[in-house]
Design a protein that fits this description.
about 130 residues
Length: about 130
C-alpha cells in the first residue's frame, strides 16, 4: 500500500469514527515521511479523542512544516477555543484569514468574534467584582 493510499485509508478511518486506528496508520506514514497534512490529520484525530497536548504538538508540527495549511490552523484554532484559550485562537485564526475562500472566511471571522466576546465578558465579570 503506497503512502498516499495509506493516508487516504487513515482519513477514511477518521471519517468513520475510528480515531485510534487512524492515529496508528498516520503514525506509520509520518515515520516514513513527515508532511504538514499528515501531522494535521494526526492532530485532528488526537483532538477528537480529547488528547489535547498531543493534538497541540501535532498542529504545531504541521504548521511548522507547512505554514500555508489552513485546515491545520482552523482545527488548531477550534481546539484552542474549546480550551478557552481565546487570545491564542484569535492570533492563529486571524493569521489564516487571508488564505481562505469567502465562505470559510465568514466562519473563521465568526469564531474570532466569539473569542473577542468571551474575552470581553470575562473582563466585565472581573470588573463587576
Amino acid at each position: 500500500m503506497s503512502n498516499n493510499t495509506q493516508h487516504e485509508y487513515a482519513v477514511y478511518l477518521f471519517q468513520q469514527g475510528y480515531y485510534e486506528d487512524a492515529i496508528t496508520h498516520l503514525d506509520e506514514i509520518i515515520r516514513e515521511e513527515e508532511t504538514g497534512e499528515r501531522w494535521s490529520d494526526w492532530a485532528t484525530a488526537q483532538f477528537a479523542l480529547s488528547h489535547f497536548p498531543d493534538a497541540e504538538r501535532g498542529f504545531r508540527r504541521a504548521l511548522e512544516l507547512n505554514p500555508d495549511l489552513p485546515e491545520a490552523a482552523i482545527n488548531f484554532g477550534a481546539m484552542l477555543v474549546s480550551l478557552s484559550r481565546w487570545s491564542e485562537a484569535i492570533t492563529l485564526l486571524e493569521g489564516v484569514l487571508p488564505k481562505l475562500e469567502p465562505d470559510s472566511r465568514a466562519v473563521v471571522d465568526a469564531l474570532t468574534e466569539n473569542c473577542r466576546a468571551q474575552i470581553g465578558s470575562m473582563a466585565q465579570g472581573t470588573a463587576g467584582r
